[in-house]
């Protein structure tokens, strides 16, 4: 069986988790902070916050940016539903904009058209997605967002190690905080770094960072500098006094969540992170081979290609008979996948008036797309087998 993606767990990973399980902390311990520190260094940002999963990361971002009922936020229809759902969790209104049919990314021209069609202040934010691992040009989105007073959440679940080239010719890593207010990553098993479940938020904004830490743990803080109750109340004293707060004291100052990460997941994450570059290079090798075989095939209408800065969580091709190819591959135990059913056509979002024809590029993409096996432990022999079966179906 050849899946479209899978985790790579080594003896080093197992040893790291075993050591964490034998330690003093299973959760809320020092290994989490160390993973956050190393991940921030890898991405090139100032702050990182580990959370329960990528969806939790998105939700906390929306909360930290104070998304309120009725707030309008723009995102892409070609993404996992969580990219949009995080806005709905806060009562916000999701407005979809179509994709660029060549890159499969949120089309900045479509976003700009939406913004121009309404008075300034109509929209509050944008959630661009580094779909399949291809990096969004966030410099361009930042310029547009600043013109209209918008925040940006960058969904980089598919793209740790990915980057785009800015107007000065510099590499800008996905999630580095130079253009987005907040960014998120996922550590689901099929992602570049796997911890079972898990996610990470990255930012360069210290105020947002501190807010995220509070929201991650029930809205509770242990920072005496911002306590609101008096030391007397904290100590349970009836007579007021001005001495320090007792060691046990903490305050719930806002409504937060239990979106914490565990120490043994962090240990696995640190181990996986040490091989992240190696895994990314293997993904690029696989993508290069797919590109060489498929770039000139007359029956392949579009594909991910070989693009600088692409992190290749997925390699997508577009074919006329997508269902036929999907079924044929499964007969040969090749479990390709479809990414994604357009969010605006999910029954939940249809209730808000979205319908077929609203996003023609996204809908056309969905009719033809299929994601081929893409993971670092995919062997040359397995990839050759996949290519052979794809070509045999298309050439029949």
What would you say this structure looks like, in words?
- It is a single chain.
- This protein has 396 residues and is α/β, with parallel strands linked by helices.
- The protein has 3 domains: 2-218 and 256-274, Type I PLP-dependent aspartate aminotransferase-like (Major domain) (Aspartate Aminotransferase, domain 2); 220-252, no CATH class; 277-394, Aspartate Aminotransferase, domain 1.
- It contains 14 helices and 16 strands.
- Strands 2-10-9-6-5-3-4 form a 7-stranded mixed sheet, sandwiched between helices. Strands 13-14-16 form a 3-stranded antiparallel sheet.
- The longest helix has 19 residues, at 276-294.
- The radius of gyration is 23 Å and the shape is globular.
- It starts with a strand and ends with a helix.
Q: Using the 3D structure, state the CATH architecture of the largest domain.
A: 3-Layer(aba) Sandwich
In the predicted model, the low-confidence regions spanning at least 5 consecutive residues are none
**CATH T-level topology of the largest domain:** Aspartate Aminotransferase, domain 2
How many structural domains are formed by the residues?
3
Tell me the major beta sheet: 7 strands, mixed
Coarse structural class: alpha/beta
Provide the gyration radius in Å: 23 Å
Task: Give the mean pLDDT.
Answer: 97
Return the string of H and E elements: EHHEHEHEHEHEEEEEHEHEHHEEHEHHEH
CATH class term of the largest domain: Alpha Beta
What is the CATH superfamily of the largest domain? Type I PLP-dependent aspartate aminotransferase-like (Major domain)
Strand fraction: 15-25%
How large is the count of helical segments? 14
Question: Quick one: how many beta strands?
Answer: 16
Q: Tell me, briefly, the overall form.
A: globular
C-alpha end-to-end distance: 23 Å
Helix content: 25-40%
Strand order of the largest sheet: 2-10-9-6-5-3-4
């Amino acid at each position: 069986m050849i899946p479209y993606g899978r985790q790579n767990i080594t003896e080093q990973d197992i040893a790291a988790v075993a050591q964490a399980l034998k330690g003093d902390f299973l959760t809320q311990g020092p290994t989490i902070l160390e993973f956050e520190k190393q991940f921030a260094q890898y991405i090139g940002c100032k702050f990182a916050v580990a959370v329960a999963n990528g969806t939790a990361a998105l939700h906390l971002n929306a909360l930290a940016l104070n998304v309120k009922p009725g707030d309008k936020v723009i995102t892409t229809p070609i993404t996992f539903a969580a990219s949009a759902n995080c806005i709905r969790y806060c009562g916000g209104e999701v407005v979809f904009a179509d994709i660029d049919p060549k890159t499969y990314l949120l089309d900045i021209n479509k976003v700009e058209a939406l913004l121009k069609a309404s008075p300034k202040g109509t929209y509050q934010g944008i959630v661009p997605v580094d779909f399949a691992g291809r990096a969004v040009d966030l410099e361009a989105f930042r310029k547009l967002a600043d013109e209209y007073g918008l925040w940006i959440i960058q969904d980089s679940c598919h793209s740790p190690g990915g980057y785009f080239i800015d107007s000065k010719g510099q590499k800008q890593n996905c999630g580095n905080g130079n253009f987005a207010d907040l960014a998120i990553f996922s550590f689901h098993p099929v992602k570049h770094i796997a911890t079972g479940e898990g996610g990470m938020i990255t930012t360069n904004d210290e105020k947002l960072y501190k807010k995220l830490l509070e929201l991650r743990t029930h809205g509770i803080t242990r920072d005496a500098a911002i306590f609101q109750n008096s030391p007397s109340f904290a100590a349970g004293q009836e007579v007021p006094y001005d001495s320090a707060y007792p060691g046990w004291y903490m305050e719930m100052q806002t409504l937060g969540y239990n979106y914490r990460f565990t120490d043994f997941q962090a240990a696995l994450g640190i181990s996986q992170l040490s091989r992240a570059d190696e895994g990314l290079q293997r993904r690029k090798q696989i993508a290069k081979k797919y590109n060489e075989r498929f770039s000139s095939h007359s029956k392949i209408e579009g594909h991910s290609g070989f693009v600088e800065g692409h992190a290749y969580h997925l390699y997508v091709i577009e074919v006329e008979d997508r269902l036929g190819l999907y079924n044929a591959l499964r007969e040969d135990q090749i479990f390709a996948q479809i990414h994604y059913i357009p969010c605006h056509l999910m029954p939940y979002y249809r209730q808000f008036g979205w319908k077929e024809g609203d996003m023609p590029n996204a809908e056309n993409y969905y009719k033809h797309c299929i994601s081929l096996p893409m993971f670092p432990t995919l062997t040359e022999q397995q990839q050759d087998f996949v290519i052979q079966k794809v070509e045999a179906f298309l050439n029949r």
